[in-house]
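Bench notes, afternoon.
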Amino acid sequence: MFYRQAGIRHRSYVSENKLFPIPADRNILWFLLALGVLAPFLIDSLYLNSYILPWLIWSAAALGLNLVTGWAGQLHLGYAAVMAVGAYSAVHAARFGVPWEFALLIAGFSSALIGSVFAFAAMRVKGLYLALTTLAMQFVMDWVLSHVPAITGGSHASLQAPTFKLLGQPITSDAGLYYVAFGWCVLVTIFILNMRRTGLGRALVAVREKDYAAAILGVNSFYYKIIAFATSSFIGGISGAILVATFFFLASPEQFSVTVSIQVLAMVIVGGLASIIGSYFGVALILLMPGIANSLFTLLADFSGLQFSPETLAHIPNAVYGALIVIFLMVEPLGLGKIYSNIRDYLLVWPFDQIKK
């Protein structure tokens, strides 16, 4: 009963290469999908739109960054820049009367165009040099957002996003906005899940491991780097647009600063490079843990009668949350996704691993 591979015999390569060769994994996914669909009926709207909705959107963005950083091995410190391009492109398009369906596509393609520029930098430099190049492009985008009023309205201005509509119907309810974020996150997850099994996924891994060796085997590293950066930026652009349309409801330069780029990269690294489930875990830890830690410390202070200054209560949760990141990476340097994988692999053979030889 606990040995989930018992009775599963793969008689062909196609059978073994299924998306979920172990039925239990498929059943867990169906359960989580049903839980996501029923979430508006099970969770209070305050928590749904304050925690779950941004978690889904940032998970989609982290999956996009993981595509270029985890699978293609290209260190990217300017991901917030391509998200900003998508967000502002979609908002301006919607303000000009373009339907939101096409505004999101405009966001994706405009971000993919800007993201392809990073691929040309990746052809000349790699590693930390590429990270500095992408960071420089992030600073350029920060300057543009702050000093070009035609785009943002100014350094301290915010651009109001029009009401989000799908098929001409305004979506203003909490459940409706949640389902938009949920649907987009599911689409990105399905794409990444299937990409791992395709020639594109294998080519990206080959480029990540050693681009010169991949070129000898006939893999055009320049072509696949462009594909990785463009596809990752496409996902990031639409994620930025949906973030503005369903959560922030306005776009401002502070939402896509260099700090955000570092934060998204931290989500990917803490979750685990090239790990899909790890991206979800990493976003949950980076995005949700500070608020949870703050609530816990406030309750602990009230329960124990200890008096903490507001400044102390503001800094202690951040210190604890930072310490948790260090502890998780010390326990498993490959991220939270690898911890989950280790637990899963243990359950695959339990209790037979307890038999003494």
